[in-house]
Every structure is written in C-alpha cells, then in structure tokens.
Specification:
CATH architecture: 2-Layer Sandwich
Strand order of the largest sheet: 4-5-3-6
CATH class: Alpha Beta
Order of helices and strands: HEEHEHEEHEH
Distance between the termini: 57 Å
Protein name: ABC transporter ATP-binding protein
Organism: Cohnella soli
C-alpha cells in the first residue's frame, strides 16, 4: 500500500482534543499569522513559571512572556522560550518552578495579546 502525504486543515478551539494528532500548527488571529511552527517545537518552548515577584521579574526580563499574573508576593507567567539545564538549575535555586504549558493555555495566552497583570 502506498502512503500518500496529506495536508488537512482543521479549525478548532478544542486544542486539547486534537493536540496529539497535529504536526504543524498555524495560529491566525484577525487575518494575521501569529505563529506557524511544528507542534513539538511549540511544546518544547511553552512553560508556566511560578515564583516570587523579585525572582520572576529578574528571571523573565529576557524571556518572551506571553502572560503574567501577580497574586500576593508571587507571579505566575506563561513563557514561550527555550530553557537549558543551566536555566532550570538557576530557576530552581531562585525558588522558581517550571512546568510544561498545555497547548490550549498557550494558544489562549498568545491570542489574548500578552501580558495580563492583576
């Protein structure tokens, strides 16, 4: 049986339901392409960070923050950037936790337009 490559265009707001079957993702908002990348590449750079205001402000100053929320003396931030082992060790030493960000939340934060401070 011959394998014929195919492209299927799928439009959905239910990202978690299709996340395991997509290879390439294009996010379009208002006619503008916000992102066109490989799904695994997006997953490898999408993180949720949590830590004290002081540590987070310093640590995220050179990162692409797509969402930020302050609560009490802490900050929660969605970051679209690369982290190597040295970055992770420095974050850990400063009391910052780094977790993967589900694609659904990544898309919502990216489309929302970036930083949100409460």
């Amino acid at each position: 049986m011959d394998v014929i490559p195919r492209t299927i265009v799928l439009s959905s707001h239910l990202i978690d339901e299709i996340a395991k079957v997509v290879e390439n993702i294009v996010i379009v908002e208002g006619g503008n392409v916000l992102l066109n990348d490989d799904a695994d590449a997006i997953r490898s750079k999408s993180f949720m960070l949590k830590g004290s205001k002081e540590a987070m402000e310093k640590w995220t100053s050179e990162k692409r923050v797509i969402y930020r929320e302050a609560y009490g003396n802490s900050i929660l931030a969605a970051v679209f950037d690369s982290f190597d082992e040295e970055d992770r060790a420095l974050a850990h030493d400063q009391g910052i936790s780094i977790e993967g960000l589900p694609l659904q939340k990544f898309f919502a934060y990216l489309i929302d337009g970036g930083e949100h401070i409460e």
